[in-house]
Design a protein that fits this description.
141 residues; mainly alpha; two-stranded antiparallel sheet
Length: 141
């Protein structure tokens, strides 16, 4: 985020550091979510929960997903404002949404979407539906 954020034509704007920090926060939330999923693998033993830690894992996933979503929303909001209001600055022409700007906008959005996938996986693994549980019960019989 910092490398590409400061190389775009909007790097003159004073809110660029804010968007870079929000993008980094979204990426870090995704990384912590992945670490939480890796740690949660130790809670399974022979197809069942070894410890009753599902709420801890759910808390980690929600604690990384919600700030990741907020950071991504704030990032897109501020960066779109930077681009759309760029023509009002003295000596700076109006910027348009070019491919690098759109790719830069998509980075925290993709991080938030992947974080959402991690959250859905935790719900499906640690809190299975009765229908899914009945499928496993019928196969064991």
């Amino acid at each position: 985020m910092p490398v590409f954020g400061y190389r775009l034509p909007t790097s003159y704007d004073v809110t660029t550091p804010l968007t870079v920090v929000l993008g980094i926060i979204a990426g870090c939330c995704l990384m912590l979510s992945g670490v939480g999923l890796m740690v949660s693998r130790t809670y399974f033993a022979a197809g069942q929960l070894r410890y009753r830690k599902e709420y801890t894992v759910l808390g980690v996933q929600l604690g990384t997903a919600i700030p990741g979503w907020l950071a991504a929303i704030g990032f897109v909001f501020w960066y779109v404002i930077i681009v759309t209001t760029s023509g009002g600055y003295s000596g700076v022409g109006q910027l348009h949404f070019t491919a690098p700007i759109v790719l830069y906008l998509s980075i925290p959005v993709v991080a938030a979407l992947l974080n959402s996938v991690n959250l859905i996986m935790v719900f499906s693994l640690f809190f299975p539906s009765p229908r899914r549980l009945s499928l496993y019960g019928s196969k064991a019989a």
